[in-house]
Design brief:
239 residues; mainly beta; 3 helices
Length: 239
């Protein structure tokens, strides 16, 4: 993992800009994962850092790792207490109705032999909430900011496809595959720490967004401060 991928580093925490295509957990087929890069992320410590949360394989952006067991427990507690602020940016395949809003949906997991597993709206599932706002519309596609209040598996991907009626570009599960890859990026992460500065990291939009015609200028810098709604409670992943 090259040094330019490191967005934040101190004695407790490390935030990297995870590239799309790299799984956090080792795949069953034995292919490369984050684990193969942990040795290069020790930065003078003897222990490997440990992921505090998860991003889907094809979601890029801010991923938090702890640098020692005590820090890991404290950082996980921040997630459990709903204190973590996350901001995602996604390119959606379609023009969404409206300019902003809140998606509330109970999600459950289904699985079939033909299509594998996915998350769907399920009245008996876990509640999920995501604030959203349109940043830019171009060529029939919408660049949208997502501020998740919960952290359910595939939450943003399902909320885009089912809640807004426009799946994330390149999402082969809830939409269709695209040569650009999946256009979902964890752009900002803020983790408060009592008595210490916040863990604050921002990951620039990857090159695939520029290829689609959307550059960093489309993401307003003035919006980097956390909002009261931009908190995330723990589960598996948002993306």
């Amino acid at each position: 993992m090259h040094g330019e991928r490191v967005l934040f580093l101190d004695g407790e925490a490390l935030v990297i800009d995870k590239p799309a295509g790299l799984p956090v957990d080792p795949p069953r087929d034995g292919s490369l994962s984050l684990e193969n890069h942990l040795e290069s992320l020790k930065f003078g410590f003897q222990r490997w850092p440990k992921a505090v949360h998860r991003l889907d394989r094809d979601t890029s952006g801010c991923l938090l790792l702890s640098r020692n067991p005590k820090a890991h427990a404290r950082l996980q507690q921040a997630f459990e207490q709903g204190l973590v602020s996350k901001r995602y940016v996604a390119l959606l395949d379609g023009v969404v109705d409206g300019t902003s809003g809140l998606i509330e949906m109970a999600l459950g997991k289904v699985s079939t032999a033909e299509t594998g597993w996915r998350m769907v709206e399920d009245p008996n599932g876990k509640k999920s909430r995501t604030n959203w706002r349109v940043l830019e519309i171009k060529d029939g596609r919408s660049l949208v900011e997502f501020l998740p209040e919960t952290g359910r598996t595939h939450q943003i991907r399902v909320h885009a496809a089912s809640g807004l009626g426009a799946p994330v570009v390149g999402d082969g599960v809830y939409g269709k595959a695209d040569g650009l890859g999946m256009m979902l990026h964890a752009q900002r992460l803020i983790v408060p720490r009592p008595g210490k500065p916040d863990v604050l990291a921002e990951a620039p939009l990857p090159e695939r967004f520029a290829k689609a015609g959307f550059a960093d200028e489309a993401v307003p810098v003035a919006d980097v401060a956390p909002t009261a709604d931009a908190v995330t409670t723990p589960d598996s992943t948002d993306g």
